[in-house]
Amino acid sequence: MLIFGSALLPLMIQRLTGEDDYYDSFSFNFYSGTDPGSIAGAPSTGLLAGYDAAAPWASTLYSTSLYLAGPISTHALAAGSPTYWELIGRAGGMPERLLHGSAGKTGSGADIVFANDVWAMGDPVTLNSLRIYPLRLSYPP
Question: What is the pTM assigned to this prediction?
Fold first, then answer.
C-alpha cells in the first residue's frame, strides 16, 4: 500500500511537471476507444492528439496540482472522440506512463471535457489551460 502524505504530494507534483529534472520530456496524449481505466498493462493505442514538450512541461500550483497556462494547441492526428488521456514522461528516451484520466463532452463528468468531442483528422485541439490534481482524478492509477 502506498500512502500519500502532505510531504509526498509536492515531490510527486515536481516529478510529474518535470521540475525535478528526472524526465527529459513529456507527452500529453488523448485517445479514443475503450478507456482501460489505468496506466497498467499494454501501452495505449488509438492516439487522437498529442502535445509534446521538454521538461519542465508544466509548473506546480499551490503544491497540490500541475498547471500549464494556455492556450495549448495541437491538431487531431486521427478522427474520433477522446475517451481518455495519459501523461507520458521520458527519461533517456524511455517512455513511462505516469497519469491517466477520462476525457469527454462537457457535462460528462470526465476529468477533461471538450465542447466538441468529435474530431476530424487535422482539427485544431485547444486547451485554454490545464490544471491536474493527481489525487482527484476520476479513478486511481
Answer: 0.86
Measured CA distances, 128 to 41, 47, 82, 95, 137 (Å): 31, 21, 17, 26, 19
Residue recorded with cell 477522446: 82
Could you tell me if 68 and 18 are in contact, meaning their C-beta atoms sit under 8 angstroms apart? no
- Please give the helix or strand (H or E) that residue 26 lies within, else none: strand 25-31
pLDDT in tens, 39-80: 888 888 889 999 999 999 999 888 888 899 888 899 999 999
Distance, in Å, from the CA atom of 104 to the CA atom of 27, rounded to the nearest integer, reads 19
Alpha helices by DSSP H, listed for the chain, are 8-17
Q: Please name which of 52, 31, 36 lies closest in space to residue 117, comparing C-alpha atoms.
A: 31
Phi, psi of 9 (to 5 degrees): -55, -50
Beta bridge partners of 130: 68
Kind plus residue range of the DSSP H or E element containing 124: strand 124-132
Cis peptide bond N-terminal to 56, omega within 30: yes
